[in-house]
Amino acid sequence: MTAVTVPVPTMPRRRKDPTEIRDPEGAEKKVLLAAPRGYCAGVDRAVIAVERALEHYGAPVYVRKEIVHNRHVVETLSERGAIFVEETAQVPQGARVVFSAHGVSPQVHQEAADLELRTIDATCPLVTKVHREAVRFAKQGYSILLVGHAGHEEVEGTMGEAPEAITLVQNPEEARTVELPETDKLVWISQTTLSVDETMETVGILRERFPALTDPPSDDICYATQNRQVAVKKVAPAADLVLVVGSANSSNSVRLVEVALEHGAKAAHRVDFAREVDEEWFHDVATVGVTSGASVPDTLVQDLLRLLADYGYHEVEEVRTAEEDLMFSLPSELRKDLKAAGLATSNKPGGADREHELR
Fold first, then answer.
1. Fewer Cβ atoms within 10 A, N terminus or C terminus of the chain?
2. What's residue 4's pLDDT?
3. DSSP per position, 136-167
């Protein structure tokens, strides 16, 4: 007789009742909600590009890599007919493919051309700016130091623009040991989603070792990454606990946890969803700081706020450190096809501001 194994469904973890959580002594419970938080202009543009592509061309629409680093976004778009692949070769010849907000190398563009793919390039314009810097500096004979994380799609795309000229430096430790040929033409550029503080520490070490090091013409770390870190720095000193909504492969979300701890938060955790919060974290906690990475729809933050309210954190105080009104137009390939079909080419429904969440 052949044995048959019947899988046992995973039982949901029983949440502790709010009465089982120790309240802080002599302090009222509240939430400090950091702002800005959530979607940046580049993420908003990329997600809408996939949505509009599905509406206009119909499913399937292929997407190389995750369109943005967020589980909820990827799962939601998959349900609508987007097919996410790791490599260009996995896309059927002649199919339509969207390149993610993190950008791709010239090699990937060539692979797509060889397969006669119809491409929609949703690379964030701020990432494109770094790519152009790399190409320009390489043509001018510079050795380029790229501050970033090995394996990140954005870094792979940037290095692919001038592989013979770029050396990757991941952190201050590598800045102390990296070896370079002697040259007076040396410049640094960076991944857009890094910790501002750690990047400047890394650059400071490089500048001490290589006095000829030149700065890029403008800051490469994107405005949204900086704004979210500044807001967390404001919240952290007053927070017993900081919760960051964001995925593990989201560089800027991971950095927000580190920034919170570095600037005074007693504890900090990253979660994809409110259901991942361990209510044990609430013991003796009066003030909870809340923020989210630049690829997180606000609906996930609202889920977290509802959970916090269940545990007595009803008062929510927004801590705003900047206003953001930047908007990027849809990728040119998509705009062209929408215009030819007589459809609106704005990335805002009806021209109105789009809520920062998936619909």
1. N
2. 45
3. HHHHTT-EEEEES-TT-HHHHHHHTTSTTTEE
Q: Is 40 annotated as a binding residue?
A: yes
| Identical fold, 41-124+327-340 and 126-214 | no
pLDDT tops 80 at residue 179:
yes
* CB atoms near residue 342 (< 10 Å): 6
Which of 51, 66, 153, 154 does the annotation list as catalytic? 154
Is 154 an annotated catalytic residue? Answer: yes
- How crowded is residue 335: how many other Cβ atoms within 10 Å of its Cβ? 19
Q: Determine whether domain 26-39+223-320 maps to CATH 3.40.1010.20.
A: yes
Topology (CATH level 3) of domain 41-124+327-340? Rossmann fold (3.40.50)
> What are the extents of the domains in the chain?
26-39+223-320, 41-124+327-340, 126-214
CA distance 68 to 278: 26
For the segment 314-339, what is each residue's pLDDT rounded down to a tens digit?
A: 999 999 999 999 999 999 999 999 99
**In this predicted structure, what is the pLDDT of residue 354?**
43
User: Any known ligand binding at 283?
Assistant: no
Q: 218 pLDDT band (50/70/90 cuts)? A: confident
- The CATH number corresponding to 126-214 among 1.25.40.10, 3.40.50.1820, 3.40.1010.20, 2.60.300.12 equals 3.40.1010.20
Determine if residue 218 is labeled as part of a ligand binding site: no
